[in-house]
Design a protein that fits this description.
alpha+beta; 322 residues; single chain; two-stranded antiparallel sheet; ten-stranded mixed beta sheet
């Protein structure tokens, strides 16, 4: 950042300026960390296919990492990993620090997906949260619980929505959707579990209403949590916004999904990740044609686990940084 020199007039102004005249919020970063891994309840041994499903890819799910809060407010409820911005810390630095502290992952895909500052969202006071979307290869990370959490879990994500209202006029419109969010976890990937919780399955659920209003073709978005079972704060709303952002980017065929993959992957694995996020099947020929510029074939093959040998690919770096 270019240095700025304060002149004498400005020094005099700042000397008499009282910043305490204005109420100031606390600023936090909350991170929706997604991965694609085996569905809840499957151990590594159980993922090996039987003879009947000899060539079938192990069932996978979109997962999100949540922590069980160890202290008030919302003690024992589940929340997104995150924390308050430290003095002289950029909000992106806060998000990267919190991501590393929870997963030991550095340099992951990490981008803002919304700002949440509704009055009353945190009973401790005025807290504005910058929400981030993070994508990682969950098989390569080590999750742990932080100082304000005594348990960390990967949850299977089930997400559906329906349009419940649509009014379109000449230069404005109003659309309303209802989304149902369900998260389910066994203890397969959990950390810091007391013996009394061993084998416990947890299901969280929420219903979120989305309202889109267009005035002179410009969009205003509002979200409201209608039902909430097990989520701390307004984090069901944040997760919904992060999921919608992820789906929109995947729908456009963007390379965002590559951040869920290992360094080397098969085209079937890549297509499977897109299908999981979009919630629908894709035509293989069309998908491979769209992805052709983004991948480079390696000289390696994947074998074993009942699959026919398949070529391994990696990102085409030139296509990602045009």
């Amino acid at each position: 950042m270019q240095s700025y020199t304060i002149n004498e007039a400005e020094k005099e102004f700042l000397k008499n300026y009282d910043i305490t005249r204005y109420d100031r919020p606390s600023v936090a970063a909350d991170i929706a960390i997604f991965s694609v891994m085996a569905r809840a309840g499957l151990t590594g041994r159980e993922q090996v296919q039987d003879k009947e499903n000899y060539r079938k890819m192990p069932e996978q799910k979109l997962k999100i990492l949540l922590i069980r809060r160890a202290s008030y407010p919302y003690k024992d409820c589940f929340s997104l990993p995150g924390g308050f911005c430290r003095k002289n810390e950029d909000i992106y630095e806060t998000a990267r620090r919190e991501l590393y502290e929870e997963t030991y992952v550095e340099n992951a895909y990490l981008n803002p997906c919304g700002i949440f500052g509704e009055a009353g969202r945190d009973p401790r006071g005025w807290v504005i949260s910058h929400a981030f979307l993070a994508l990682i290869d969950g098989e390569q990370c080590r999750i742990k619980a932080g100082s304000d959490a005594w348990e960390a879990r990967w949850f299977d994500v089930t997400f559906s929505g329906e349009e419940i209202k649509k009014e379109v006029k000449e230069d404005d419109a109003f659309l309303e959707h209802k989304y149902v969010l369900t998260l389910e976890s066994s203890d397969i990937f959990a950390t810091n579990l007391p013996d009394r919780r061993e084998g416990e399955a947890i299901v969280l659920s929420a219903v979120i209403k989305e309202q889109k209003e267009f005035k002179n073709y410009h969009e205003t978005l509002r979200y409201e949590v209608l039902e909430n079972d097990g989520f701390a704060f307004d984090h069901a709303k944040i997760i919904t916004c992060a999921l919608l952002s992820l789906r929109r980017q995947a729908q456009m065929g963007g390379p965002i999904v590559f951040d869920l993959m290992s360094k080397r992957f098969t085209l079937a694995q890549l297509q499977n990740a897109y299908e999981i996020i979009l919630g629908r099947k894709l035509l293989t020929a069309n998908f491979r044609r769209k992805m052709a510029d983004f991948v480079v074939e390696t000289d390696e093959m994947i074998t074993g686990a009942g699959h026919r040998p398949a070529k391994l690919f990696q990102r085409n770096i030139e296509a990602f940084y045009r």
